[in-house]
Amino acid sequence: MSETAPGHAEHTLEHLRKIGAHNAENLRTAAERLLTAIRADGLVCTAGAGHSLAGVMESFYRAGGLAAVRPLYHPDLLPLHGAVPSTRTERRTGLAEEILTGAGFRGGADVLVVFSNSGVNPYPVELARTARAAGSSVIAITSPMASAEAPKRAGTTLAEEAEVVLDTLVPGGDASYPVDAPVTAPLSSLSNAFLWNMLLVELFDLAAAAGVDLPVWRSSNTVGGDEANAASLAHYGERVPGLL
Fold it and tell me: pTM for the complete prediction?
């Protein structure tokens, strides 16, 4: 390990502590929106593009995760299917409405969570705008700081279109090291996963206080895990493509 690695590790941990404290009130509000959707037997749709799809992956079908999640996904948005083309796809106007329509997004009962660090490209902005117009709550996990430094390709930003903003506090460009002139060690994926997990904690506590049995996945690699997941698979399997 280099001499600077422990210092950077502490810097990263401090960033996570900072965003946890900064978002405390909005995490509670976001959890209330998710609980309302679950009580109405709605779905929590999660979306992102590029490396923000890591947040979508974290939200879907994983041990300890929420079972009522439907990921919104298009292969052209994933860098593994073409890195430069994925950037062009995120900038394409109209894709968000196509994907929401194709997914049968109901509005109202469903909540949309959008991961996007800069939050300025048409895809995340139009996702939020379309879902809000359909009467849904929209939670953005984004960085208004990064948005302020980026070109407004959609005329506005994800943070401006969302109902609830969970701020990653990630600077424009995403890199965090060296501190005085960052060129590497991006923070957005860590921040997205941290805020999503903090949101699950808030949701669990709210559900427990309200006497709501929160549908969560158990690891299929533990004794009884498959059996514990059977009810959630039966309930959500037909509504969430990719589960079965």
Answer: 0.96
